[in-house]
Each structure stands twice: as structure tokens, then as C-alpha cells.
Amino acid sequence: MIEFHLDVRSGVAPYAQLVQQVRQALRLGLLSVGDQLPTVKEVVAKLAINPNTVLKAYRELEHTGLVAARPGLGTFVTQSLADKSLAAHEPLRQELRQWLARAQAAGMDADSIEALFMTTFRTSLETRR
């Protein structure tokens, strides 16, 4: 089951962070068709956010066809976003963990690591166009 977290410093609305986390979990194969999302009550208790925030996120996911609410039962995944690259994820994840360990060993903090990764990622995407 997915475990949500919020980054209050991100500038991204909490409901959008929940939507993004579900989409990422679907893309990475961490959630599959038929899996149940945490109940609104569970998310509210864990994150201390307004229930309407969770409902808004779940409604958006439902509107896009990724989940469906079943009255009295919960919200369930109806569509996957994983593709054929899923098999390559684990070796890449291991390499990324090693890279992160080297960055930390070099004295970089989380914000610096994120900045380096994101700028390099964006530059890489721009040069491929």
C-alpha cells in the first residue's frame, strides 16, 4: 500500500502532491490494478490534513480514470501507468542509491543533491530535443 508524505516547502498544493505520488507509484509498479488506496480517514490521521484535501486528490484521480471509488469499500486502482521499462527500474534504482551515497559522502545536503539532480535532469532533457 502507498504511504503518502507531504513536503510543505515544495510550493505544491497538498492535494496535488497526493495525486503526484499515486501517479508515480502507478508508473513504478508500486501500485497495481485492484490495489486499494488508504482511506481518507487513514490519510488524514497520518498527515494531519483536511479530509477535503484528500477527497479532492481522490476525485481528480477518479476523473482521470486511474482509480474508482466503491461506496462503503474504498478507492481502488483501475489503471496502471507502468510500461515495458519497469524491468530496468531496479538496477537503475541501485545505481541511483550508490550515486546518492557518493553525493552525501562528498558533504552535499538534501537540498544540494536535489538541486544538482534536477538541473542535470532538465539540461539532459533539453539537449535531447
TrEMBL record:
Q: Read off the CDD domains from this record.
A: WHTH_GntR (cd07377)
Top-level lineage group? Bacteria
Q: Where in the numbering of this chain does the HTH gntR-type domain appear?
A: 12-80
Keywords, A to Z, come to: DNA-binding, Transcription, Transcription regulation
Transcription recorded as keyword: yes
A Pfam family that the UniProt record links to this protein: GntR
Keyword Nucleotide-binding set for record:
no
What InterPro entries does the entry give?
Tscrpt_reg_HTH_GntR, WH-like_DNA-bd_sf, WH_DNA-bd_sf
Entry's Gene Ontology molecular function annotations: DNA binding; DNA-binding transcription factor activity
The name under which this protein is listed is GntR family transcriptional regulator
